[in-house]
Write a structure and sequence with these properties.
Blueprint: H1 2-8, E1 15-16, E2 42-50, E3 54-66, E4 69-78, H2 80-85, E5 89-97, E6 103-111, E7 115-123, E8 128-136, E9 142-148, E10 150-151, H3 158-165, E11 173-178, E12 185-199, E13 202-216, E14 223-225, E15 229-237, E16 244-251, E17 254-265
Length: 287
C-alpha cells in the first residue's frame, strides 16, 4: 500500500550544495512548470487492488486553495480481507506554491501492525530537512532529524501537478528528484503514447506514462537501484483536467493497481483550506 501511494498520490532549476555535483544532475528536466497549471479544487477517490482481481484498499486525494499555496490532503487504508491480513492507515498533507508548483512542506503519518511513523519535511531552495518519529508497538520510541544538501526537490504530490503541467508529447521524458516521505528518489516519467481507458462506463482518451525510480543516498547523493519495483505505468486523462485514471505496478509482492472510482469538483468553502499550524522544520543542532 505504501509503495503504491508513491506513484498514485501521489505527476526548475536545481542546485547541489555538496562538495561534488553528482552525474545524475545532467538528467534532470530543466525549467519551470508548464502551461497546464490550472487545477480545479477537487476530490478523487481510488480503489487499490492486488493480483488483478482483489480490492485491497481505498485512497482519497483532495486538492484545495490555501492563499498563495495549494493544499493537498491524501489518505489511504487497507480494507476487507486485505485489512484482516495487514492493517494499514495513512494520512498526508502537502503544501505547494501555486505559482511554480514547488513543494514547500509535507507531513505524513502511517500506522501498521508494528509501528506508527510520522514525518515532517521542509523543502527549502538548497536543502531538505526531514524530521522522523517512530513509535513501535513494542519497544521505545525514537526520533531523528536529517538534512539532504540538495534542492529544490518535489514531494509526492507536487510532482503530480508538475508533470501534468507539461506538454507531454509522445516520447517525452521528465526526470525529477522526489522525496515522498523520508528518502529522496530520482524519478523519470516517459510518455509512452496515447491509449483509451474505460472510466465510469465510458471510454476516455488517456496519456500513458512509464515510471522509473532510483534511490538517492541522502548523505552522498549516490544512486542505487530501487529493487522493490519492476515496472510501473500511469494513465492520465488526455484533456484539460489531466487526472490520473489508472496505475499498474509490478512489484516484489506481485501485481498492484489503482483505479479512479470518483471525481468531484469542489466549490465555495469546500474549495479553500488553511495551512497547517507550523510548516517549518528545525535542522539538527551542530555538534
Amino acid at each position: 500500500m505504501r509503495f503504491l501511494l508513491l506513484f498514485l498520490l501521489g505527476v526548475l532549476g536545481h542546485s547541489v550544495t555538496c562538495a561534488q555535483t553528482p552525474e545524475w544532475v545532467k538528467e534532470l528536466t530543466p525549467g519551470t512548470a508548464g502551461t497546464h497549471r490550472k487545477v480545479p479544487p477537487c476530490k478523487l477517490t481510488f480503489d487499490i487492488g492486488w493480483s488483478h482481481v482483489m480490492t485491497a484498499g481505498q485512497a482519497t486525494l483532495t486538492v484545495r486553495e490555501a492563499g498563495e499555496y495549494w493544499r493537498a490532503d491524501a489518505s489511504a487504508a487497507s480494507t476487507g480481507l486485505a485489512r484482516s491480513l495487514w492493517k494499514y492507515d495513512c494520512e498526508m498533507t502537502s503544501i505547494m506554491h501555486r505559482g511554480d508548483l514547488r513543494a514547500h512542506f509535507l507531513q505524513h503519518r502511517e500506522t501498521d501492525s508494528e509501528e506508527t511513523c510520522r514525518y515532517r519535511v521542509a523543502f527549502e531552495r538548497h536543502r531538505v530537512i526531514t524530521q522522523t518519529q517512530v513509535q513501535p508497538v513494542k519497544g521505545a520510541p525514537s526520533s531523528s532529524t536529517a538534512v539532504c544538501a540538495y534542492g529544490p526537490m518535489d514531494d509526492i504530490l507536487s510532482v503530480i501537478l508538475y508533470v501534468r503541467s507539461l506538454e507531454l508529447k509522445n516520447g517525452q521524458k521528465i526526470t525529477r528528484v522526489v522525496q515522498p516521505w523520508d528518502t529522496p528518489y530520482l524519478t523519470t516519467f516517459e510518455v509512452q503514447g496515447r491509449e483509451t481507458i474505460t472510466y465510469g462506463g465510458q471510454k476516455r482518451p488517456c496519456i500513458k506514462l512509464g515510471l522509473k525510480i532510483r534511490k538517492i543516498d541522502r548523505s552522498t547523493l549516490a544512486l542505487s537501484a530501487y529493487k522493490k519495483m519492476k515496472t510501473a505505468t500511469i494513465w492520465v486523462s488526455d484533456d484539460e483536467l489531466r487526472i490520473p485514471i489508472e496505475m499498474n505496478a509490478s512489484v516484489f509482492v506481485g501485481f498492484m493497481f489503482a483505479r479512479l472510482t470518483k471525481f468531484e469538483t469542489l466549490s465555495g468553502k469546500e474549495a479553500t483550506a488553511s495551512l497547517p499550524h507550523r510548516t517549518t522544520v528545525k535542522p539538527p543542532a551542530k555538534p
